[in-house]
Amino acid sequence: MTNKSEWKLTFTRLPDISSDEIIAHMSDVRVVEHMPLLTFKWDRNTVAEFVSAKEECWRRDGLGHWAILCNGTYVGWGGFQKEGDEWDYGLVLKPDSFGLGARISKKAIAFAVADERIPFVTFLLPPSRKKLGGLARLGARFVEETEYDGAKFLKYRLDTE
């Protein structure tokens, strides 16, 4: 990556990203390591189903996950997904872009703060994630250990009002 001051982050939609790019991203062992629900192999059909599901969130809720670009290059995906009455924020970056997480999250959280539908944001992190200082710097607090689709997660909450 270039100098931090030269990083231009943009959010676009997942259909704008090639299937091959998403397959390579989601098949990287360094990504899989922190995704306990990722128990399958990614292929073009998986990508089509994934993108369709994320686009359905946009249609249903008016908000969803974005593809994230840094200086026009795909670095990962993330955004908000409605889970019951809560808006969950997720971010999945390519390993060479892990260092962009705080900057991307600040931009996304600013979006949530400006959206009156989102009084708070939740974060579900796998217990394998050990570096959690960024959440504290954002103002998120630990809520509980919870189970989602059979996997354990650490749940955090950030009030946006």
Concise account of the structure shown:
The protein is of the alpha+beta class and 161 residues long. The chain has helices at residues 19-27, 29-32, 44-61, 101-114, 133-138; strands at 9-12, 65-70, 73-83, 86-93, 120-125, 141-148, 151-159.
Question: Would you spell out the secondary-structure blueprint of this structure?
Answer:
Layout: E1 9-12, H1 19-27, H2 29-32, H3 44-61, E2 65-70, E3 73-83, E4 86-93, H4 101-114, E5 120-125, H5 133-138, E6 141-148, E7 151-159
Parallel strand pairs: 4-5
Antiparallel strand pairs: 1-2, 2-3, 3-4, 5-7, 6-7
Count of distinct strands: 7
Largest sheet: 7 strands, mixed
String of helices and strands: EHHHEEEHEHEE
Secondary-structure arrangement, i.e. CATH architecture? 3-Layer(aba) Sandwich
Distance between the termini: 34 Å
How large is the count of helical segments? 5
The coarse silhouette is: globular
The CATH superfamily is Gcn5-related N-acetyltransferase (GNAT)
Number of domains: 1
Strand order across the biggest sheet? Answer: 1-2-3-4-5-7-6
Tell me what portion of residues adopts beta-strand conformation. Answer: 25-35%
Highest-level CATH class:
Alpha Beta
Identify low-pLDDT runs: none
| Approximate helicity band | 25-40%
Radius of gyration: 15 Å
Give the rounded overall mean pLDDT. Answer: 89
